[in-house]
Specification:
11 strands, alpha+beta, binds FE2/S2 (inorganic) cluster, Ubiquitin-like (UB roll), four-stranded antiparallel sheet, five-stranded mixed sheet
Length: 243
């Protein structure tokens, strides 16, 4: 265990935990856009920055979702410098995603209602990378990735084509914090729409339940699960409700 102070509160924390985890454990709110418990941290949005003073007296800004707690560390989550820098980051994000409801709401909570930076093509994607990490770490498909650099950075599948690795599970859509990826099941098909205009809609045939006739999951996803679990495809003839 290590002893540290966050916003004046003396705490004991398990070694190896990040500042963000420890702060969340005790109900201290640090804004985040790209961190979630079930997926490894990546440090994309930088909104979770905090100011630390280490035991040797040195101060610095760190991303709390990546930085592990240290013995004797003093953490400030809302110092003047932090608030100013977070507002700056939020202004940049607002310039990129000026029409994204979740971004506008988050910006408003930080006192940012308009951005001094030039608007950029009203992007939907905040580039948090959660969809990419969920696809890789949770599903094990690695069908999408973050490509290009700087202002051209985007989420895409190889060559902007429907990836063979994509099973249509929709994890990317479920985890997206700003609903930039949409998913609809209609007429026996699942359609996934990525935020990247260069990518066409991604379509999957849904499996029909042998008993109730309801379409319940993409056939490709069922094949993936059957293969991974070593179970026969015949186990998936019916939907979970009819099994
Ligand atoms: S939550 Fe830490 S960088 Fe996004």
């Amino acid at each position: 265990m290590v002893s540290l102070t966050i916003d004046g509160r003396k705490l004991q924390a398990e070694e190896g935990k990040t500042i963000l985890e420890v702060a969340r454990d005790v109900g201290i709110n640090i804004p985040t856009l790209c961190a979630t418990e079930s997926i490894s941290p990546y440090g994309a949005c930088r909104l979770c920055i905090v100011e630390i003073t280490r035991a040797d007296g040195r101060k610095r800004l760190v991303t709390s979702c990546l930085y592990p707690v240290e013995e004797g560390m003093i953490v400030q989550t809302t110092s003047e410098r932090i608030v100013r820098d977070r507002k700056m980051l939020m202004s940049l994000l607002l310039a990129r995603c000026s029409e994204v409801k979740e971004v506008k709401e988050m910006a408003k909570q930080m006192g940012v209602t308009e951005s001094p930076f030039a608007e950029r093509a009203k992007e939907k994607c905040v580039l948090c990378g959660l969809c990419v990490r969920a696809c890789q770490e949770v599903v094990g498909a690695s069908a999408i990735s973050l490509v290009n650099r700087g202002v051209d950075r985007q989420v895409a599948s190889p060559f902007y084509l429907q990836s063979d690795a994509c099973i249509g599970c929709g994890s990317c859509a479920y985890i997206c914090p700003v609903n930039a990826i949409s998913m609809e099941d209609k007429g026996g098909k699942r359609v996934l729409v990525m935020p990247n205009p260069e990518m066409k809609k991604v379509q999957f045939k849904l499996k029909k339940c042998k008993t109730c006739g309801k379409f319940w999951a993409p056939e490709k996803q069922i094949e993936f699960i059957a293969k991974k679990s070593g179970t026969p495809l015949t186990d998936y003839e019916c939907c979970p409700d009819c099994r």
